[in-house]
Amino acid sequence: MTISRRQVLLVGGLGVVGAGVLSLPLQDIEAKSASALDSRELPRPFQTPFVQAPILRPDRSDIDPVDGVPVQYFTVAEVAASAAILPRLKTPILGYNGIFPGPTISVEQGTKAVLRVRNQLPATHPLDGHLLYTSTHLHGSASLPQFDGYASDITNVGFRKDYSYPNFQPARTLWYHDHAVHNTARNVYSGLAAQYHLHDPLERALLPQGEFDVALTISDAMFAQDGSLGFDDNDHSGLWGDVILVNGRPWPVMKVKKRVYRFRIVNACISRSLRPTLSTGDPVTVVATDGGLMPVSQSVASWRHAPAERYEILIDFRKYAPGQRIVLRNLSNKNNVDYKFTNSIMAFDVVPDTVDTTDPTWNTIPAQLAPSDVIALQPSAATIQRTFRVKRKNGMWTIDGVTWQDVIASEFRKVAANPDLNAVEIWEFANSSGGWFHPMHIHLIDFQVLSRNGRAPFAYEKGSKDFVYVGEGEKVKVLMKFGPHSGRYMIHCHNTVHEDHDMMVQYRVGPEDAADTITNNPITAAPAQWDTGLA
Ligand code: C2O
Ligand code: CU
Ligand code: CU
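Structure tokens for the assembled complex are given below, as produced in the milestone run.
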């Protein structure tokens, strides 16, 4: 642990100092770790109405002449824009279509999507001058390697890339976000993140839809005096903002009717993990994890929710009185830096409006949800167990001592594992540190969490996942089957400042054959095109 991080933690532990009492003389480290806004300009909880990102309309629809499958075509432009996050000051952002979070893409299982991403950003980032090449990852999709947002498969300013998404997987909440090599944290923090909803008939029948199916993209931020975003990653340890944003608004208030609502919660923070809970002490019902519907719903009082993880929950507002306010609180977890208001996320105000009781989801909390191939996998089917040690080495974050820089140096040939197509394996992530948690993500596949330090996973983790919280001193085992594609995919920590410096490696499914090196080469198979603006 570095000196500066220790100081940050001390400051953070005091809670009120960071965000609340700005008239006190601030030590250097405090000024670095929280917003430098004048107190009049600081947002306060529950002053702003809840909003959601708009749903992106497809440009056109079509039938794929090769396989007869319907396809929808979407376009987003990555642009610099200005956002109204603070009460008065404007905040420069980078956004898909100029908004943060970007527009939500909503698709049906069995319809493919092609997302054209046009990089119309300025040449360099206003914060630190890094080049604004991008790579777009649809997190939660089993995409081919060349459409997976491989960090080094970059789209330079003035170029565009068409990403093909198969959408054959079970319904789930995904998110698309920037994955540009070494710059993911700054680019995502600046606004390049958005939700993507994959629907299927089972999920449509079981869970609330339309206005009762609500996207919550949670992030944290710190602001400079002029209202622009501040960025301090404490020597690549992590960024902890003192302002909690939900869909780009500080601690918003949502009006809710007396019925059951579904919330798709994406933690889009750079480093902060959350432990959400309701102020009433009532439990929520977790119905879906990263990979979609759980086999059985789980009632929990709170849950540990790291960056990039998705949980879908139901909250039943029937029992509350009109006029009542229910706060979604954050109990936090070890090794986060907390400020005065980071213990709140948003609030729900119950309104007396009439409820449509012909919609059967209005009062239904389903217990049985959907069977899952991933959860049906048996550990006895595994042919090998591999261990990945997540640790700091020579000032760099590594996976078994390896960084993405090593992968680059190998001309992208170095792999940390090489499972066969359709092989079943057990992977263990081991974190011997007490000072850090590492939110680990494996691209391509969904897995089952088998155990944590030999014990059963948490109730809310008993669903299909692409992501696992590897807490302090934890050894976590996951079980998965590799496919349906072969090729090279990333494994990394999703504390994106760790990822950028440089806690990311890759694995390859199947042999290093022509499919891997040519047809589905993550960098050369579908390169970005110069964007004439006419197409
Ligand atoms: Cu959400 Cu490799 O990332
Ligand atoms: Cu991913
Ligand atoms: Cu990490």
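Residues 1-33 have pLDDT under 50 and may be disordered. The CA atoms of residues 99 and 528 lie 23 Å apart. Further analysis is deferred to the final report.
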